[in-house]
Specification:
Chain lengths: 153, 153, 118, 118
Amino acid sequence: MVRLMAEAEGIEIRLTSDPRWLQVLRAAVGQVGHLAGLDPAAVDHLKLAVDEACANIIVHGYGGQRGQPIVATLRLYPDRVEIRLRDFGRAVPPDSIRPKTPDASRPGGLGVYLMHRCVDEVVYREADGPGMELVIVKRLIRSGEETDGRPRP
Amino acid sequence: MVRLMAEAEGIEIRLTSDPRWLQVLRAAVGQVGHLAGLDPAAVDHLKLAVDEACANIIVHGYGGQRGQPIVATLRLYPDRVEIRLRDFGRAVPPDSIRPKTPDASRPGGLGVYLMHRCVDEVVYREADGPGMELVIVKRLIRSGEETDGRPRP
Amino acid sequence: MDVHVRNDGASTVIEVQGEVDLYTSPKVREAIVAATKARAKAVIVDLSGVGYMDSSGVATLVEGLQFSRGYGGVFRLAGLGATVRQVFQFAKLERVFDIYPDVAAATQSLEPRTADGS
Amino acid sequence: MDVHVRNDGASTVIEVQGEVDLYTSPKVREAIVAATKARAKAVIVDLSGVGYMDSSGVATLVEGLQFSRGYGGVFRLAGLGATVRQVFQFAKLERVFDIYPDVAAATQSLEPRTADGS
Ligand SMILES: Nc1ncnc2c1ncn2[C@@H]1O[C@H](COP(=O)(O)OP(=O)(O)O)[C@@H](O)[C@H]1O
Ligand SMILES: Nc1ncnc2c1ncn2[C@@H]1O[C@H](COP(=O)(O)OP(=O)(O)O)[C@@H](O)[C@H]1O
């Protein structure tokens, strides 16, 4: 096990920009989180982050158009789960995608904010070719380590 | 919905021949079955068939060697769920893979038999290139239709 | 995901079962729009059967609250599980909504007070 | 998937939690091999926490039954849910194993009969 975990091991899921595949992707992401040893709440957070990111690809990247490709790569590392999402839609400057402070008077605008609340890293990048690339990282908290990262005395 | 369902819609999952990905594939297959409207028992059957087929690819097709590619394509049709599994391992003549009658005195030998019990079609084919291709079909029973396929009067 | 609507005189209860996301939230929205168009005095959304909700579900509920406030109606949520509650916490909406442990609690407090009770 | 083993005098209870497949069945096998190597008089496998089992899990249990019979031991299964039971039905193993509704029932019948009970 330790030997296998030392290198990244992964699974790749190719879906299209149809909202109904989101539940399938979430189920797969949930199992990968479980395999990584995340607790159930952390698994939920990882699922939510990936789901919000994909919903944004469908709505913003592809403007709601169905049938367009999305590639999700789910990888296990000894210290983290890493999920990459690649689309081939309308790209925007990566640092223009920022969390907005929740505003109860307006429905919507929560996606990126929730992503940042749920995982440790949310990094948008310019893709090699059309579209965008996003890397989501959820770190594993190992026993003997506090949540703030300080090793126990 | 009807319009979308008229054509096949699918999702593709690329995993490697490591048994721990089986639970991830099962979770995705389960959601696709749920999306198709299968009842929970039928969803369980579909998961079991795909799981047994993949386990056989890992054990027989790849002789237990890790890190080898398996491609699963999950498609929804108006009348069925179709799952294709492609490997690039040792191929055997497709019709040599046959269900064995369960024999309680010997552990094992149940995989192909269970696949046939669980789904409506299990078709092994010679692949285009190395390895094997398998198509698993689970039919949807629509309301107004009996299990034997006869339309109600 | 399933949505069941029932009218029990004083209130319209929208019972949601399953996962609420970009695919399924339009069905929840439909039920909320129908109830608020009919100017239901009280709309109670029963989320006890919801194990997952994303921002599209949250946005749908925020919209419902606004529709309802538009005509002076009551809009309540009931039965949030830990996973759903966490999303409301993250979104800082826990105090914006009237949240009850279950439909019974949400309904009970709607009943007119008895003469000696106030 | 988790496997917990406890010895309560008369029997060794192997409690399995989660999904049993090609990845996880070796862990179940390990516990069964340990118990049968130690010639446990009775091995009870508690499957009440198992929501999924494939043929590798079934094969592991068939092996356990054979190990146990090899020294005249008792090997019982307890708490099969609908999904797991279906696999045993398909495999025509329902009558091959001694299957009990739960661990209590599987353990109870192990106790020596009282003098006036036989
Ligand atoms: N995949 C994407 N492609 C293009 N633009 C995006 C993408 N994801 C997010 N954005 C941009 O970031 C903004 C903020 O997204 P978000 O916080 O989820 O709120 P909302 O989607 O409700 O607008 C979006 O309005 C959009 O302009
Ligand atoms: N993907 C595959 N590639 C090559 N051979 C296979 C494959 N799947 C099944 N087989 C062959 O079919 C036989 C029957 O499989 P099965 O019924 O699952 O029993 P078991 O795997 O326990 O032998 C296997 O022993 C193997 O020879």
